[in-house]
Design a protein that fits this description.
heterodimer, A: 238 residues, alpha+beta, Aminopeptidase, eight-stranded mixed beta sheet, 10 helices, 8 strands, globular, B: 393 residues, alpha/beta, Peroxisomal Thiolase, Chain A, domain 1, nine-stranded mixed beta sheet, two-stranded antiparallel sheet, 18% strand
Chain lengths: 238, 393
């Protein structure tokens, strides 16, 4: 690594210095899919990034453009070592490796406080986002965070996180995604409500399912169609 | 009274979320029906709709659709009868032709609901309840469905698993229906027996879960009816006769009914329709029933006389109501999977009956050449019900 590069990189991750990945699990979805939930590394993140070049063009569709653009920036920052202690978790169909959703987060505002970045579902209607969001919260608390700051950029997000998880308002906190109202998932709420009521998944993941996902990050053939039910051609022509 | 035939049906594009206007959506379905009937010589148009005045800020839909489609000199009007608007409009269309006032009538139902937030839609639907005895106390239709289910569970031994079986059957049918809003496979493990089912299929109104309820849908459907005499002249498709129609009423407030599990209005409407069609229950080959909540699929089948009271869930357990079962129910996916744009539902049920009777239902076609079919369109929480029986000539 050059000196120029070294001076640009973030400091070492303080609460997960060994970069221990989130322990993979699998979740039964409504349609019978076994969704494998696992943390992905930088090389794997590079494979997912192309999805977002289409997603950022979904203007006026449930905030996919703004969330997509921000995730794209965060993933590029991650693979280029320009963001501190970010992690990315993927939900994949355990039989095919198809990518169903993605979440990302950062571990430290300070060692006790994590900061949630984004959640995006590519296959809708199966509560993929609800499961993945709770999985990334699980990683925060597994690694020692005592609170996580969260904001929402869409009404769907607000209902899923702020309302369903009964988050505490923290209007005094300036979340790094901007000055929109911040909320907080506390350890007390996590242990008292979210873990017993909203946290699901089984470990270990059967070797076959994990193998399918590790060896094959299958991108949706047409992510625009997956999200909007219109083909890429129809959507962009419209 | 003249015999009446349905000569054209159409539903436009796949239901779900429609980006254009309500009138554009209804026009697409109407044009499909015109193409199917191969005639645009329409004398009258009845538009079935429940909530455009409130949700879409538009009224006088009959005038608007005639103008949009340039159907002049046809005359038209809007028909509002809650979720039974579609069946009611078809019944009025039938009367207009049978009485000789009109020769050819189009009935188009449509509702564009997804522009409104969930709480607004729930409230708009709740306005059908009794204003003084129910609505002001905060009743919603999911709550009414839940109370009916609770009574059914206690009285007849119906279980959440039975309701999930119905949902799985309807989702399976919806996967084969290109017009269905919900085209998604579901499994018992995924929605009920796994731990994750608590998130995948949460309780909405105890004991009803998310998958026990219909979605909020934009959609339109259209049929064209004419005198049988005219149909024989102009139609090259199998002739479908509107053999029977009936309408039944019950108290607005559900608690005033002697037995809430007995849907008196369904029985009365069915009896009238069967009497008019000169058919018996066992002559019917399949049914489309108004399952806004899956518990209603059971209650309506029993109150219509297809199954003994408290026994329909046993038929579901045996697979009798599946497409290849003894008595297929909701081959379209019903309100659960096709969707429930309230004003359009009754008309869409008749579209499905026609497609099935003609043998044009594709992958979801009921076998053995069905000849007689039944539809129940359920208004309010069973206070105003329309039944239609169609027969292939």
């Amino acid at each position: 690594m050059s000196v120029d590069e070294e001076m640009l990189r973030p400091p070492q991750n303080k609460i997960n210095p060994e970069n221990t990945p989130y322990p993979s699990k699998f979740i039964n979805l409504a349609d019978g899919t076994k969704m494998v939930v696992r943390q992905i590394n930088r090389d794997e993140v590079k494979q997912v990034i192309p999805l977002f070049y289409d997603i950022v063009k979904l203007t006026d569709f449930q905030y996919y453009d703004i969330v997509g653009a921000r995730i794209l920036g965060e993933l590029l920052a991650y693979i280029n070592y320009r963001v501190h202690d970010e992690y990315v978790i993927l939900g994949q169909d355990g039989n095919t490796g198809e990518v169903l959703g993605l979440v990302n987060s950062r571990l430290t505002v300070n060692p006790k406080v994590g900061i949630s970045l984004h959640t995006m579902t590519f296959k809708r209607g199966l509560r993929v986002g609800a499961h993945l969001f709770v999985a990334k919260m699980e990683n925060h608390f597994l690694l020692g965070n005592e609170e996580v700051y969260i904001v929402a950029e869409s009404p769907i997000g607000f209902r899923r996180w702020m309302e369903e998880l009964r988050l505490e308002p923290r209007p005094e906190v300036e979340h790094e995604l901007g000055g929109v109202p911040s909320y907080c998932l506390t350890k007390e709420n996590w242990e008292g409500y979210v873990v017993p009521e909203r946290l699901f998944g089984e470990r270990p993941v059967p070797e076959e399912l994990l193998g399918n996902c590790n060896s094959n990050i299958l991108l949706p053939e047409d992510v625009v169609f997956q999200i909007t039910r219109k083909t890429k051609e129809e959507w962009f022509n419209a | 009274m003249r015999d009446v035939a349905i000569i054209g049906v159409g539903m436009g594009r796949r239901w779900g979320r429609y980006e254009g206007s309500l009138i554009e959506m209804m026009a697409e379905a109407s044009l499909d029906a015109i193409e199917d009937a191969d005639t645009d010589q329409i004398d009258a148009l009845f538009v079935a709709n429940m909530g455009a005045g409130r949700i879409n800020n538009q009224t006088a839909l009959g005038s608007a659709l005639i103008d949009y489609l340039n159907l002049f000199p046809a005359v038209g009007a809007s028909i509002e009868n809650g979720p039974a608007s579609g069946g009611t409009a078809a019944r009025i269309g039938y009367m207009a032709i049978a009485s000789g006032i009109h020769d050819c009538v189009m009935v188009t139902g449509g509702e564009k609901m997804r522009v409104a937030p969930g709480p607004v839609v729930t409230d708009f639907i709740a306005t059908m309840s009794h204003p003084q005895a129910e609505y002001i106390y905060g009743i919603t239709f999911p709550a009414l469905g839940a109370m009916l289910a609770r009574i059914y569970f206690n009285k007849y031994g119906v279980t959440s698993e039975d309701l999930a079986r119905i949902a799985i059957k309807n989702h399976t049918n919806g996967l084969k229906n290109p017009h269905a809003h919900i085209q998604q496979k579901i499994t018992m493990e995924g929605i009920l027996t796994s731990r994750e089912a608590k998130i995948n299929n949460p309780i909405i109104a105890d004991p009803l879960h998310l998958y026990d309820m219909c979605p909020v849908t934009d959609g339109a459907a259209s049929i064209i009816m004419c005198s049988m005499e005219k149909a024989q002249e102009i139609s090259e498709k199998p002739l479908i006769r509107l053999a029977g129609t009936g309408q039944g009423m019950d108290t607005m407030a559900v608690h005033e009914r002697e037995d809430p599990t007995f849907l008196k209005a369904v029985t009365h409407a069915s009896d009238q329709a069967f009497s008019m069609a000169e058919l018996k229950r066992e002559n019917i080959d399949f049914a489309e029933v108004h399952n806004a909540f899956e518990i209603l699929e059971l209650a309506e089948l029993e109150s219509a006389g297809f199954f003994e009271r408290g026994k329909a869930h046993l038929a579901v357990r045996n697979g009798e109501t599946e497409i290849f079962g003894r008595f297929p129910v909701n081959p379209s996916g019903g309100l659960k999977a096709r969707g429930h744009p309230v004003g359009a539902t009754g008309v869409a049920q008749l579209c499905e009956l026609v497609w099935q009777l003609r043998g044009e239902a594709g992958e979801r076609q009921i076998p053995n050449n069905p000849k007689h079919a039944y539809a129940v369109n359920f208004g309010g929480f069973g206070n105003n019900v329309v039944v239609t029986i169609l027969s292939r000539v």
